[in-house]
Design brief:
By secondary structure, this protein is mostly helical. It contains three helices and no strands. It has helices spanning 2-13, 35-48, 53-64. The radius of gyration is 12 Å and the shape is globular.
Length: 72
């Protein structure tokens, strides 16, 4: 749990106001559109017991990792 919080804080501190991840962005369907929103959704889902920690980290890696789908 502490590792998830640490990862979340590290990822969020790397942005300023011109960064796409400086605020939560959701698509028209309500799904997370940028890494900040994806990470928040993954952590919230982990806390609710919907995702395991491994599933949440896999989602973050898949969407926000080096070759993630959420990078422009």
């Amino acid at each position: 749990m502490k590792k998830m919080h640490l990862i979340f804080l590290i990822l969020l501190t790397g942005c300023n106001n011109i960064c796409d991840n400086s605020k939560l962005i959701y698509g028209k369907t309500g799904l997370p559109k940028n890494c900040r929103a994806i990470i928040k959704a993954d952590i919230d889902s982990y806390k609710k017991g919907v995702f395991s920690a491994e599933d949440a980290l896999d989602s973050i890696n898949r969407n926000c990792g080096e070759f993630g789908y959420s990078w422009e």
